[in-house]
Design brief:
single chain, about 375 residues, alpha/beta, TIM Barrel
């Protein structure tokens, strides 16, 4: 059975103050060594029964800033992945990029290497907001990067936006959406700014130097995004993701549907489904320790856990509820051997009674109000 491959590139030119991903600011990085480590890990994993003989349906280069790497490095990784695993004919290969780190030549190189979907962290087209978010690129660089990506042969383009930024207004959000759509992406991700523990923004918030927008204002902006993007031709298919019909991010659907995926690189996570449950593991977070371990023996695991059927059932529900379509009740019963209502019992009655969960045509999904309270609803299934 096919699976998805995630490849983590951990370096950035600078660390954004809201980012809690495993990323490290650096002026230079050991690119060749790291590529060799990635290939060594792939070679070791390809021999395991879980992955052996199963082709890849999607690949995603995340970070960090993968666009910092030379296209030849990306090509080496993809060549190795194809030799070790094989590709499905319609494989989706995505690479994340900062608009300020690409030019036409690099984009042509990435496309030639095999990348067929590019994702730019635009975040905003307002210079004040970009500065607040600590972004190193300008709105003009985003516009140029999107145009050059099309010229380089990328038919699939995602743009990331962030809303609910302190000082931002509804008109600012509408303006960002209009600017993004003018660049003709087939996919837009729109994220509510959160203050995650361990980030610079979280520290500043605790010190009282930054105040998040009031919850009502954040909810109003989310409602605006959920109305504006579909109205302009980008239906919502996941809590934070909108796409033209047929252009949903297939790689991310792997996560939300609880399917198997292999993560390689510093701090990357993996999940191998086995029956109702499975196994999850994660790599060393520090790039130097990761590379040393991978080059020494092909593995760099820092920890692992067994996902039993009870845990898997909860994860199945809250991950699938991220999708606008929710999940089919028969799929739940087929996987876990028990009905959704029997398994979760009275725990969900109040969610249905309050109109936060909807049951329609044999499916369960979040209501509009449920979307705004998603995190609280998900907590009921953890």
């Amino acid at each position: 059975m096919s699976f998805s491959l995630y490849i983590h590139i951990p370096w950035c030119h600078s660390k954004c103050p809201y980012c809690d991903f495993n990323s490290h600011a650096a002026a230079v990085w050991p690119e060749d060594e790291y590529v060799r480590a990635l290939i060594a890990e792939m070679e070791r994993r390809a021999a395991e029964p879980t992955w052996h003989g199963n082709p890849l349906r999607t690949i995603f280069f995340g970070g960090g800033t993968p666009s910092l790497f030379d296209p030849r490095s990306i090509g080496r990784i993809l060549d190795s992945a194809q030799r070790r695993f094989g590709f499905e004919p319609d494989i989706e290969i995505t690479l994340e990029g900062n608009p300020g780190t690409v030019d036409f030549s690099k984009l042509v190189g990435m496309r030639a290497a095999g990348v067929n979907r590019i994702s730019f962290g635009a975040q905003s087209f307002n210079p004040v907001i970009l500065k607040f978010l600590g972004r190193i690129h300008s709105a003009d660089q985003t516009r140029e990067a999107a145009r050059e990506a099309r010229r380089a042969g990328f038919e699939r383009l995602n743009l990331d936006l962030i809303f609910a930024v302190p000082g931002q207004t509804g008109d600012d959000v509408r303006g960002d959406i209009a600017e993004a759509i003018a660049l003709g992406p087939d996919h837009i991700s729109a994220y509510n700014l959160t203050f995650e523990e361990g980030t610079a923004f979280f520290t500043e918030m605790k010190r009282g130097r930054i105040m998040p927008l009031p919850n009502d204002d954040q909810a109003a902006m989310y409602a605006l995004v959920r109305d504006e993007l579909p109205r302009r031709g980008y239906p919502m298919y996941e809590i934070s993701n909108y796409a033209q019909s047929g252009h949903e991010a297939r790689h991310n659907l792997t996560y939300w549907r609880g399917q198997s995926y292999l993560g390689i690189g510093a701090g990357a996570h993996s999940f191998a489904r086995d029956g109702a449950g499975g196994r999850r593991w994660w790599n060393e977070r520090m790039p130097a320790r990761y590379s040393a371990a991978a080059l020494a023996g092909g593995l760099a695991e820092a920890g692992a856990e067994t996902v039993d059927a009870e845990i898997a059932a909860g994860e199945f529900v809250f991950l699938n509820l991220r999708l606008r379509e929710g999940f089919d009740l028969s799929d739940f019963e087929l996987r876990f051997g028990v009905s959704f209502d029997t398994h979760f019992g009275a725990r969900t009655v109040s969610l249905f009674d309050a109109g936060l969960l909807l049951r329609e045509d044999g499916r369960v999904r979040l209501s509009e109000r449920g979307l705004e309270l998603a995190d609280s609803i998900f907590a009921e299934f953890v």
